[in-house]
Amino acid sequence: MTYYDLHTHTRASDGMNRPAENVKLAKEKGLTGLAITDHDTVAGIREAQLAGNELGVEVVPGVEISTRVGDKDIHVLGYFLNIDDKKLLARLVSLRRTRELRNERIIENLNQLGIAITLEDVKYGLGRELRPDESLGRPHIADTLVRMGAAADFRDAFDRYLAEGRPGYASLPRISPEEAILWIREAGGAPVLAHPGLYGDDDLVISIVEKGKPAGIEVYHSDHGPEDEQRYLQIAQQYDLIPTAGSDYHGVRGGVVFHGDLGTRSVSSDTVEKLRQAAGTGRVI
Ligand code: AMP
Ligand code: ZN
Ligand code: FE
Ligand code: FE
């Protein structure tokens, strides 16, 4: 049997581990391979690939792009894209710029609530320099709120301040899922709609599938229940989409693994080959 976890984060975005550590963990857990899918960046891929070559673990280059429809954040995964593609890299820079402005808004909101937090506090919490090609997100802000004593723990920081609809939350206009799908195809990759069960709106999921025509849909995800899996597997069959799986591993925060542990959701090499094919033959309309 072959096992690939197709959704993992590293410290290039809001994961806790170095890319090489995810690869080492994959090896320890007996996986054949894993994808590195950081938010709006491919900065972790190279290190992971080097570690993968050394340890004999296949590293699938990936990304998770933040998009928006109405008042919902929608994530689009991309696999086997060319991570040196100039246009892709410039596009990711623009997404990270939007992210920075969004983070500033969140900080302003928190300040209005009487919490004396700054972006410098958040960056200080990393314990190292943030590289310009890495991305900062709400989990880093949550960690800082916990450190400051403004929240009891990571979950409390989201529940009280940072989750959608909470008083610290802010959002800015972002690209649409259809645009992200096109960007991934133009970079030679296979686009996959991430964790459809998290949006609470299957009509929206179907409209994204019909309009954007991704290559796949993430049927198996740590935050999906068995009913979600059944529903999305049916949608995958109906629309001829590749069903994918990923843990959305972010590492350990305060002793807790959020989403899922690395390797707890996986696909076999058949699925990986289908994605590779879809990436190679991706039509750009
Ligand atoms: P961002 O892209 O900066 O908006 O942050 C999104 C990330 O925050 C996701 O990948 C999740 O890991 C995390 N996240 C979002 N909502 C929650 C929540 N309600 N509780 C815990 N973590 C969350
Ligand atoms: Zn994340
Ligand atoms: Fe996501
Ligand atoms: Fe993710």
TrEMBL record:
Organism: Fontibacillus panacisegetis
SMART domains: POLIIIAc
All residue ranges annotated as the Polymerase/histidinol phosphatase N-terminal domain in the record: 4-69
One MF annotation (Gene Ontology) recorded for this entry: 5'-3' RNA exonuclease activity
SUPFAM superfamilies: PHP domain-like (SSF89550)
Protein's name according to its UniProt entry: Polymerase/histidinol phosphatase N-terminal domain-containing protein
TM spans (from-to): none
Coiled-coil intervals, chain numbering: none
